[in-house]
From TrEMBL:
It comes from Urochloa decumbens. GO terms for cellular component: apoplast. Its EC number is 3.2.1.51. SMART domains: Alpha_L_fucos. It comes from the Eukaryota. Gene3D superfamilies: Galactose-binding domain-like (2.60.120.260), Glycosidases (3.20.20.80). This is alpha-L-fucosidase. Keywords: Apoplast, Glycoprotein, Glycosidase, Hydrolase, Secreted, Signal. Residues 1-28 form the signal peptide. It is found in: Secreted, Extracellular space, Apoplast.
Length: 494
């Protein structure tokens, strides 16, 4: 009996242990938290990482400097004597300080313009700084430019003009394209990382007929520097906006069909300016414009007024573009003091307007929310990688909306600029939008993209700001909705 009882107790203990192990094993497999909601599918096309980095720069700078600076020209003839190039006090670091004052993070140098004079000692031509008296023929503007940029924490880019009015090989398809490729190799292997390379199809009406091997050039560039962005009429990474005024279209898609674009061909400006909602290629626009009338320095020109520069900013950065602002150094080799002062004034004005978000501290709600991690409040956190996403079903017929509200105890919103931003990493979606304050319409438009800015003619006040969105390319993904005060409008400066 005692043995039987002992056996029974052992059996019960074993059973209890088995149950305990089963329970603990079951607990180990039981989820400890609600599974994360996955992000929505992208709407193609989408940007590469280097295109995203470029888009977030918003303001970059161009420096047109070369033989034209010393001949008071815009387009040189190619017959200029290299001895004319003699900047007495070239200071590329001063250029970088001017760029930083304007808020730029990338600077692009004209390494060779249409006259064919090279600002570096190219091994493939005698028409370069090596033949000039500057630095006793041992100078290299490209090297000084790139070094100065890095010393000031800026990225560097280069422009190598396809049209060359000096080189005798121009017009000989194979010979000139080989020459051009060789110079690309020099620039992209001899000066470290280059963030943007600039191509265009500009040439005079009576220019020698020439076929450029753009596709070979593009592939060479990507072989030599994989993270670089290539600019041209049709990209492949960044496209021309179609004008030199610094204005994008009021509708501006980042997508185009590259197959519909021929570099240098007239008649495509409107397509480049607006983009294509059915485009298969992500090629966002860059707005190039000079701070002066001309691209090169001329003694009789002065910088555009602040009001005009801000107008350009709203119509470029505020329309889904990057602003490429040119500041031409003078014959001494520095940017004019008055131009530097205007660039600083411009940079400070942009910071004054957008440095404070009047929507901070408000409460955000929306027509719907996708789930954990995609709440409406994400539009207020100041981050590019978080965003509001509605449910798939919401808004398909009547549109989507997101709303900012002031707490009952807080002061009403008072603003005259509305900022809306899409999470373009997953594609551009918004086709139309409108802004209401306490139920009254104050602004409307079509596309948004990386950033859309609405500058109102006068300040408005209210407790509830609602943005209505139509997005037939998939549910909208908004990373930011901001409210700002532009004192330059209020002061009648525009």
């Amino acid at each position: 009996m005692a043995a039987a009882a002992g056996s029974t107790l052992l059996s019960l203990a074993a059973a209890a242990l088995a149950v305990s192990l089963l329970i603990s094993t079951s607990d180990a497999w039981r989820p400890t938290a609600t599974p994360a909601t996955p992000p929505p599918l992208p709407v193609l096309p989408i940007p590469s990482s280097s295109q995203l980095k470029w888009q977030r720069r918003e303001v970059i700078m161009f420096f047109h400097f070369g033989m034209n600076t010393f001949t008071d020209s815009e387009w040189g003839t190619g017959t200029e004597d290299p001895s004319l190039f003699r900047p007495a006090a070239l200071n590329a670091t001063q250029w970088m300080d001017a760029a930083r004052a304007a808020g730029a993070s990338l600077v692009i140098l004209v390494a060779k313009h249409h006259d064919g004079f090279c600002l570096w000692p190219s091994a493939y031509t005698a028409h370069s700084v090596r033949a000039s008296p500057w630095r006793a023929g041992r100078g290299d503007v490209v090297a000084e430019f790139v070094a100065a940029a890095r010393s000031r924490g800026l990225d560097a880019g280069l422009y190598l003009s396809p049209w060359d009015r000096h080189d005798v090989r121009y017009g000989q398809e194979v010979a000139y394209n080989e020459y051009y490729e060789a110079q690309l190799h020099e620039l992209l292997t001899g000066y470290g990382s280059v963030s943007e390379i600039w191509f265009d199809g500009a040439k005079g009406k009576n220019a020698t007929n020439m076929t450029y091997h753009f596709q070979e050039w593009f592939q060479t560039v990507k072989q030599l520097q994989r993270s670089i962005n290539i600019f041209s009429d049709d990209g492949p990474d960044v496209r021309w906006v179609g004008d030199e005024k610094g204005y994008a279209g009021t509708t501006c898609w980042s997508a185009v069909n590259r197959s519909a674009i021929t570099i240098g061909e007239a008649g495509i400006e409107k397509y480049l300016n607006e983009g294509d909602p059915r485009g298969r290629d992500w090629v966002p626009p860059e707005c190039d414009v000079s701070i002066r009338t001309g691209w090169f320095w001329h003694a009789n020109e002065t910088a555009k007024p602040l009001a005009q520069l801000l107008e350009i900013y709203y119509n470029s950065v505020g329309r889904n573009c990057v602003l490429l602002l040119n500041a031409p150094p003078n014959t001494t080799g520095v940017v004019e003091d008055a131009d530097v002062a205007r660039l600083r004034e411009f940079g400070q004005a942009v910071e004054t307007i957008f440095g404070t978000d009047l929507a901070a501290g408000s409460v955000a709600r929306a027509s719907s929310e996708r789930g954990g991690g995609f709440e409406a409040c994400n539009v207020l956190d100041g981050r590019d990688d978080t965003y509001w996403a509605p449910t798939e079903e919401d808004g398909r017929r009547n549109g989507y909306w997101i709303e900012l509200r002031r707490p009952a105890a807080g002061r009403p919103f008072e603003f005259n600029v509305v900022r809306i931003q899409e999470h373009v990493a997953l594609g551009q979606r918004v086709e139309r939008h409108a802004v209401y304050v306490d139920g009254a319409p104050v602004a409307n438009g079509t596309t948004v993209g990386h950033k859309r800015l609405h500058r109102l003619p006068r300040p408005v006040a209210g407790r509830k700001v609602r943005v209505w969105i139509t997005a037939r390319r998939g549910p909208p993904l908004l990373s930011a909705v901001g409210l700002h005060h532009d004192p330059f409008v209020a002061a009648g400066a525009m």
